[in-house]
Design goal:
Methane Monooxygenase Hydroxylase, Chain G, domain 1, 22 helices, binds pyridoxal-5'-phosphate, ten-stranded mixed sheet, about 650 residues, alpha/beta, TIM Barrel
Amino acid sequence: MSTATEQTKEIYGIENWGAGYFGVNRKGNLIVISPDNDTQTADIKEIVDDLRKRGISTPVLLRFPQLLFGQIRKLQSAFKKSIKEFEYEGDHLCVYPMKVNQNRAVVEEYLREGSRYNFGLEAGSKAELYAALGLEQSKDSLLVLNGFKDREFVKLAFAGAAAGKNVVIVIEKLSELTHTFSLLEETTKDNSDIRLPMLGVRVKLYSKGSGKWEKSGGEAAKFGLTTTEILDVIRQLQDAGRVDMLKLLHFHIGSQLTDIKRIKNAMKEAARTYAKIRQMGIDIEYLDVGGGMAVDYDGSRTSFESSANYNAREFANDVIYVIKMVCDDENVPHPTIIQESGRYLSAYHAILVTNVQDEIETVVEDLTPMEVDIDDPQVVKELADLRESINSKNYREYYHDALEHREELFTMFNLGLISLEDRGKGEVLFWDICERADQFAQQKKYVSEEFDDLRRLMCAKYLANFSVFRSMPDNWALEQLFPIIPIHKLNKKPTEYATLCDITCDSDGIVDKFVDLHDVKTVLELHKLTPGEPYYIAMMLVGAYQEVMGNNHNLFGVPHEAHIHIGDDGHIIKKVVYGATLSDSVAVARYDAVQLHDHFRRAIMQRIKNGSLSTKEGNQLIEFYENQADSYTYLAPNGS
Ligand SMILES: *Cc1c(COP(=O)(O)O)cnc(C)c1O
């Protein structure tokens, strides 16, 4: 491995956030490493080139089901080890929360691997349940239902149970119990042997999570029953002679839980609640500890929002240990632990690759030194002096002077005292001073904040062919960080500092925060663009939430998708799913392509009639317009 490659690996932090799944090969390309066998790798650049030959251009979402399997096994084996180590007498099962990524490809692949360990599903809405009921789960896996439920939802749950699934209706509100009683009566009226769902209750814990989703836990949380409400549910079930249906106790204190201490506290409180209910003679079998296992997006292993200060082993150890201690102390059996981790399982498997379309021109780019004349205004001359004599000792002071002079330049221009040429000359001098000041500043051991800001102001702006709103919505909405890395040229040191602009017409459509081991970077190191040569970057770890939360801003539709298998001889493209076309995208806003075509055609016919277009020209225009219906919503990459 060349030293340049080692350096770029460090710059982008691959080994910090990559969980062992990513690397760089001899060609300097980003690779995905099979979790089963680290000699099997897939070269992302080669995949993108292959796809391009098949007419699939960037942006394209690459799915690696093997990484999903890898995460499933990591989690499963972590719990298995802890169970053994602490002599825990219960089992551990997962249910995949569909809301994290409901795509059929993801859920089916999850079930394929997860079924080996009896991993099931979690649905939080009628639509998710409707989908889940049509999927094949292993016989002993659970189907846990969270979220607010109307009678229809509960009825669907009963239908699932009757069809043989191990359905658990988690009561989030007392009205759901009323629906349950009514459906119990309805379903058992003619058939007393019919299979019934199990029930669970979601508890509102006093303990809170940490990080962005802190609000999901604690007394003011949106979900869950208070202690008195739980006792009420139990009493009502006892009165109806149905308390044996109550099998699960659930809590979920939020997503991306960054701090293991908080998790432990919640675990203690929940385990105590379980034990006390158990002591009332109610045979709760399952303690559902919710989701929330965090992904270390920036690789810093801290309690920072985009990180986590624990790994799967520590998480499993803490969960198992705390629950065992409490249960032993209270003298109740160890429950089977249900875990609803979604982000942790699915984040790694998807990568969005796109091309940098262009660089957005800024003033800073072309700083051709200008001659200063005797009759130039004083302010321009002073800027020229500063530029001449700035050095590593005075750069800070001179930079401040330059800021003042620039202010003066604009004031004079607004008062009509200087010409447009003078203003232009002054601006170029100003940015030239900034660039020099920046170079001096960056040579120092500690770079003060004002020069970091300056760097961001001066850095290149790369136009990336994607929509932040569609493909990385949490970056826009929550400032969540995702690692971003070129997929090639990683054996060459990047020489540019850049931020990314997407292709939406929204000034929020930018990425200007990047992962860093110690801080958050405001600029990303990237390579200089070579005209006529594509430059590809990858947004990593986007498999959880991003795809399904992405929206249609500016009518950019879902990107193309390719499913990749990593084998002995590199990658195999197993499946290609085409992204949204223009007609797909307008349909989202309730347009009908046929109607649009009709109107366009009519307008052209009118022009032909009044002689301003020939019939041939008119037909060509109509054909061109109608053909656009099938084209991709993103930009055609340069040089294609
Ligand atoms: C969202 C959600 C999850 C999944 O959380 P992750 O952070 O993705 O693990 C699990 N359970 C419930 C009830 C949820 O609402």
